[in-house]
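Consider the following assembly input.
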Amino acid sequence: MNGTAKTMIEVRDLTIGYGDRLVLEGINFQVRRGEVFAILGASGSGKSTLLKHLIGLYQPMQGDVLISGASLVRAEGDDRLRILRKFGVLYQGGALFGSLTAVENVRLPLDEFTDLSEVAKDLIALSKLRLVGLESAATKLPADLSGGMQKRAGIARAIVMDPCVLFLDEPSAGLDPITSAGLDALIRELARGLGITFVMVTHELASIYAVADRVIMLDPKIRGIAAEGAPSWLRDNASQPWVRQFLNREVA
Amino acid sequence: MPVTRPVDLPVRWDLSVQPDGTGKLVFTGELDTESTPVAWTNLESELAGIKVARLEIDVRQLVCDSAGLALLYYLSVGGMTPGANVDLTGLSPDLQHLLRSFSTEDFEALQEHEPACSPFVEDVGVATWSWLCDLRQQVEFIGEVTLGVMKGLLRPRSMRWKEVLRVFEVAGVNALPIVSLLTFLVGMVIAFESAQPLAQLGAQVFVANLLGLVMSRELGPVMAAIMLAGRSGSAFAAELGTMKVNEELNALQTLGLSPVQFLVVQRVLAGILLTPVLTVFAMYAGLLGGIPVLLGLGFPLRMVLHQIQSGLHFGDLAEGLSKSIVFGAIVASVSCLRGLQTGEGPRAVGESTTRSVVSSILLIILADAIIASLTYTLRK
């Protein structure tokens, strides 16, 4: 499988696990530039583990993860840092630093990795907060923000360095339906407006139908990908009954 | 007067100013996170020396990211040319959309925002009130724990003895090597430090007596308790604090179980039982640390042992062991209380752990001073 210019992420023959336990074996898939890609599967199917390999937190047992054609698995030192700068990550709880205000959280990557002036850093951080609708909460501490606001601030921090890809780990988890829908709208806006590629792990079917262009379904029995395609197409046409049941939210 | 700068940046700009005060700034190339800081500084110094009434910025040949947009926005709102009318032309629709997310109002609001600073008197009041509340909580907690321990002893089947044994092993048995090593070294240091002054008085042989008394009455129990506070008390606070953050304590309460009865009583009981054991080890290790020094000074082992034996009385050992029971109760209960008082957020557990160690050591020394004065009065 060869990546094309439109391929943002390419996963090649990836085998991952913990110790002797295999979680996923020899999986292959590609994420296209600018699309919203979702990783689905039952609990324990390895979604979060796969995400941690895609963002380079874990080393795979075998295979490779290419971001814009560059191997994240083999890269070291400055090369690895260069690849890491291409993406942002939104963790489940937002992962904001509790001692910093929202704007300071968003500014942090600029403080650490750029020589920009204070004015420039403040302007950029505030513009990202405005993009996610949090301009009025810039000086609040994470403890004073609601769960949805924390996730929005997390997204603002993740996009502050203009990443090509944004990885989202359960973005809708713990949010009420209205906040969750607002977050979906934000993802759509950022994907279309800024051309950011999204890779998300989620259980929320409503979010998947609302934002995802393509999904892969992980199957713990075969330790691999059971189905791949547009969510509504898979819901009606997947060859495996359990995939259709999953996407139709039916009891097996 | 056109200004040109052949710099090795991915971005170039040409600034020209007409005599009527109309300026034109044409950008070409790439204005990104790397090139923007240099471009920003240079442009700021170039524009500072020029009077511009109207500035036209042409960015048709420019590619930029957020950092570049921040510079363009700053220029467009007159940040470098105060009072001038600025026109920005040639920005792509995507970048125009992003430029709209920049706001001078947000920036000014951020600059005007100052962290809330309460007056000194208010701070003192809040600190005093917080101290009084903490004292009240401690008294309530002591009562609750005492009741829990009594209940557990009167109805032994209601006590989770396995947990008591586990804590005894983790906080007591596993701490023996480090407590023994530390007090061995302390005993050695005391012997060395006291040998010289006592030699001047011709009383070097009494180093053994001094060592026996100091280790049994004072340093044995205090060292054991401080080690317990640092090693196990902090672990109690962190464990209970994490349970609170993970809502495990709420789960216990909704199950109708008291966190004090279920988690604290076992730790306090184990703390009371294990501290005397640690203290005995500390006393012996301290004496063992001093003996090689005395042998090195030329005293025979038999004489050293005789001096220690003659200098020590049952009352000294009883005093040390009684102190250790009090210290054990203090360390275990204070550490558990600090764990239960854990607030919210990732820093809360760390703060509880620190507070548990500081409070434990402070109360150990305070209790030691009170006991020392009482025993001195009783001995008179």
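Chain A has nine helices and ten strands. Ask yourself how this observation constrains the way the partners meet.
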